[in-house]
Amino acid sequence: MKRIGLWLAVVATVAGVVVPTAIEAQQPTEEAAPVFVKKIPPGYRDWRLITVAQERGELNDIRAVLGNDKAIKAYRAGTLPFPEGTIIARLAYDYVPSEENNKVFGRPQSFVAGPPKNGVQFMVKDSKKYAATGGWGYAQFDDGKPADDAMLKTCFPCHEAVKSRDYVFSRYSP
Amino acid sequence: MKRIGLWLAVVATVAGVVVPTAIEAQQPTEEAAPVFVKKIPPGYRDWRLITVAQERGELNDIRAVLGNDKAIKAYRAGTLPFPEGTIIARLAYDYVPSEENNKVFGRPQSFVAGPPKNGVQFMVKDSKKYAATGGWGYAQFDDGKPADDAMLKTCFPCHEAVKSRDYVFSRYSP
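YS: structure for the whole thing
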């Protein structure tokens, strides 16, 4: 019994290492990729504006929401769900009072964007790849580095609140 | 004397009507145009983002500042003064709390863009045409209609405060 138990343990250990490797080698890269977006979509800073927003509390930022061409086209046409390949980007900046502007206005009323804050976030539409999270892959990059999966798992549960708008909070500003 | 006076009055009146018409016919349209921008620059809603800001007080808006290609190129390169043809657009929206977002966050912290508010404003760089106002023509359109000159005359005196940045308040957000 002792010997059999040992052999089973060895077999299980080897299988545990070898089998996933074999599967990874057989399947295309997409299948092996994590369910979250780990690469920054190129050129996003040149995308067009969807809307702006401001968060107080711990976030304390002012933000712009940009969209790639597919996103802007869908927003303007009122297309729901968003088409495959849609990407929405959320850029956030420190929310800071502008002493310079306030002097000109003669009263404290002006807030501007400070340095980037709270990372850059993305929603990428791929109904097959991200089927488990409403067809959207979620991403956040802090100083260019992708957030870990534990953080990204918190995205979808909140976005489910706006399932009727294909899980997208931001509305288009004309 | 009476007759001469009458004749002078007639000549002056006729001249007052006829002479400007003759000048208008001879000179290009630009020369006869007012010193403020009276036509909405086409396609501005597709321009790229410069930055975002928020104004409290009477304005109570949240805003995006967009730039045409020349503006974005100059901002990114740190070019001052801005080149001829630069146009900067300021789009403002009602600053409204988002009940929808606050429910998801579980606390009141989220503000979004409501309907357009406080007009759409532009600064157009043309050093010759707008020489009297630092080389920038100012414009505001409320529901597509240009603001009157009295309102537009209030732009330049404030912008003089940032003469060292070529009269432009907005800084580029990365």
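YS: worth flagging: The mean pLDDT of chain A is 86.
IM: good catch. Also The domain at 33-165 of chain A is CATH 3.50.70.20 (Chalcone isomerase).
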